[in-house]
Design goal:
The chain has 12 helices and 6 strands. The chain is an alpha+beta fold and 290 residues long. The protein has one domain.
């Protein structure tokens, strides 16, 4: 066989093998249905992230026994419980098996918040005067809950593995690369080098967290229109005043327009006074990724 033909045949074979491997490693995001690459398990990601999370919490000044800390926990629990009820009603309870929610307030002047796999959500005290109201804090917390439910951290780690190793991942690399995965996870979470600042999500993931967060806050009893007011205020910040939250969560007119576009779906799930509990309702059929 001609050498060039042989090389092309080998490349074709491994390309096909990689494509088949990646196809078998795909998952889909709850509600939006977007396909995502999943090369690591929930258990692996949880193990890789919890150590960094605990290290961060041990060194952070966690606010306890205060009205603000209680409010953060109350908002988070309300939204998370509603989302869990909704997922269970729609046959997705198995996706919650590795989630143990924690909602913490940390003393830090940064206007920031972040979430880690397993349901670990942290809000910095610098966010409180900016968010101003409980409803606006619900926008932030629901957005972070959405990142957890959509498994965006798992997807980011998987994407980094695919970028670094390409075709090698189909050859058994992942079976014995715990150190490799640990180093990639450290870079993704970023808590070791700069506390509370994670690798920025892709814009598609951010839009998706906006969409899901909008639905989730509505399920939790917070009016979804508050999201428009919050993101409009955040986007109005300019120059050196831009909050750190926006450095990894970009806001623009297009984002706000997309939120408004999904508002009818969110209002369907809103359970305000006199409205039935939509957490025991079917999924809106035309819900798609922003």
């Amino acid at each position: 066989m001609n050498r060039n033909v042989y090389v092309r045949s080998v490349k074709f074979f491994f390309t096909g093998l990689l494509a088949a491997f990646l196809l078998a490693s795909c998952g889909s995001v709850f509600l939006t249905g977007r396909k995502q690459l999943m090369l690591v398990s929930d258990q692996e990601v949880l193990a890789l992230s919890l150590q960094q999370y605990r290290s961060f919490m041990d060194s952070a000044e966690v606010v306890v026994n205060s009205a603000d800390a209680e409010m953060i926990n109350r908002i988070g629990r309300s939204i998370a419980e509603s989302v869990e009820n909704f997922m269970t009603f729609n046959g997705r309870a198995h996706e919650l098996e590795n989630i143990d929610w924690e909602f913490s307030l940390v003393k830090d002047n940064s206007v920031n918040a972040f979430a880690m796999p397993g349901g670990k959500v942290v809000v910095f005290t610098g966010m409180l005067p900016v968010a101003e109201s409980e409803a606006h804090l619900a926008v932030v917390i629901a957005h972070e809950i959405a990142h957890v439910i959509a498994k965006h951290s798992t997807e980011r780690i998987s994407q980094q593995i695919a970028l670094q190793f390409g075709g090698e991942i189909a050859g058994g690399l992942l079976a014995s690369s715990s150190e490799t995965k640990r180093s990639i996870a450290t870079a993704v979470f970023g808590l070791g080098a700069q506390l509370g600042v994670m690798m920025p999500y892709a814009r598609k993931q951010e839009y998706e967290a906006d969409e899901l967060g909008l639905l989730f806050m509505a399920m939790g009893g917070y009016h979804p229109q508050e999201a428009t007011a919050f993101w409009t205020k955040m986007s109005a910040a300019g120059g050196t005043a831009i909050p750190e939250f926006l450095s990894t969560h970009p806001t623009d007119a297009k984002r706000i327009a997309k939120i408004q576009q999904k508002m009818p779906d969110a209002l369907y799930y809103y359970k305000g006074p006199g409205i039935i509990n939509r957490t025991t309702a079917p999924i809106v059929k035309d819900t798609k990724v922003l």
